[in-house]
Every structure is written in C-alpha cells, then in structure tokens.
Amino acid sequence: MKTNYLFLALFLPVLMLAQYDYEPSSNNPFGQPNPEAPKELLDYAPLIGECDCKSQSRKPDQTWTEPVDMQWRFKYIMNGMAVQDETVKADGRHSGSIRQFIADSTKWFVHYYSTAAPTPKLSTWKGVKNEEGKMILYKDQKAPNGTDGYSRLTFYDINENGYKWVGEWVDTTESVVFPFWKIDCTDGKKSLVKKDD
User: Fold this and answer.
1) What pLDDT is attached to residue 191?
2) Beta-ladder partners of 84
3) Residue 155 in contact with residue 135, Cβ under 8 Å?
4) Domains and CATH numbers, the chain
C-alpha cells in the first residue's frame, strides 16, 4: 500500500502536468497545437497570435460605421485540441469564439458569443478552409424579408502580416451578397512570446 502512495506522490504531478503541455504558458502565450489533434487544427495556425485591427459594421441606414480599433487574439485551448479567439474593441463591444474541428463531419464548428447582447445560446457556424486558403463558415439565416440564405463569414488575404475578415448575408445560390461587417487585420501581428535571455 505504501508503494502505491509513493508512486502517486512521485508521478501524479508529472501525469497531471502532461495534460496541459499545449496550454498557453509564459513561454507560449498562445498555446501550441496538440500533435494528437486533427491536422485541420493547423488551418488556424497563420491566425494564432494577436493583431491590431479596424472593425466596421453596417448602420441602420446601411452606411458603414467609422472604423473601430480592435485587438483580435487567437490561441490554442483545451490542451491544444481547439482554438479560441477573443476581440477587445474600443467601443466596448467585445466578442469571442470557440473553434473545434469535428473529424466525423470534416468541418469546423465555430460557437460565437458577445457582450453586445446576452448569449444564453451560442450561435454556430460550420465550414472549411478552401483550396484558395480562405476559411469560409456558414449559418442558416433568413433575410429580413424572409428570403432563405446564410450568414457567411470569411477569413481571406491570410499571410504573415495578418488577414482580413468579412461577414455577409448571401442567398442560397450565393449570387446575392450583402456585407454587414468587415475587419482589417493587415498591420502585422504582435508577438507576446518571451525571448530567452
């Protein structure tokens, strides 16, 4: 019995730490991808980190708001098995998402929440990264006049300097496109990774 207690005392802390190897830490503030995760987890690798962005949305009169300063941060969570993003905006309308790739469906599922309105039930978009390198996500959504369509969210122009994002309503054929929100994060990513002395 003493041997069992000794084993637990010596090795349990090591086993517990192993469960968090890929979580955000002082050395890796955005976490790391877990090698056991689906390979599609790396779809978001170019977005991991923090960017200074400009956010614009449609006003009721259909004109665009003035650009709002925003920080958009992406990190690996759930011990490197999923991605979380969070925004902090100068206008106080903060938001975030949990992003999981479900291998059985071969799709990303993105669950969104915001301070702009209560979110007792999270909205969910589904989608994939296409051959052009765009991440495109859809959610069923009718237009105000009742026309069937989708809320379509797209990351595009993704490179080492940043990315762009647009939220649009599209009809079921995607021939009618109405942008309602756009974000530009192309000024470059900030690094929070600590350098070795």
Assistant:
1) 57
2) 75, 98
3) yes
4) 2-190 (2.40.128.20)
For the chain, the DSSP string reads -HHHHHHHHHHHHHHHHHTTTTS--SS-TT----TTS-GGGGGGGGG-EEEEEEEEEB-TTSPBPPPEEEEEEEEEETTTTEEEEEEEETTS--EEEEEEEETTTTEEEEEEEESSS--SS-EEEEEEE-TTS-EEEEEE---TT---EEEEEEEEEEETTEEEEEEEEEETTS-SEEEEEEEEE-S-EEP-PPPP-
Nearest-angstrom CA–CA distance, 103 and 96: 23
40 phi and psi angles, rounded to 5 deg? -65, -15
Distance separating alpha carbons of residues 185 and 71, to the nearest angstrom: 9
156-174 tens-digit pLDDT: 999 888 999 999 999 999 9
User: How long, in residues, is the chain?
Assistant: 197
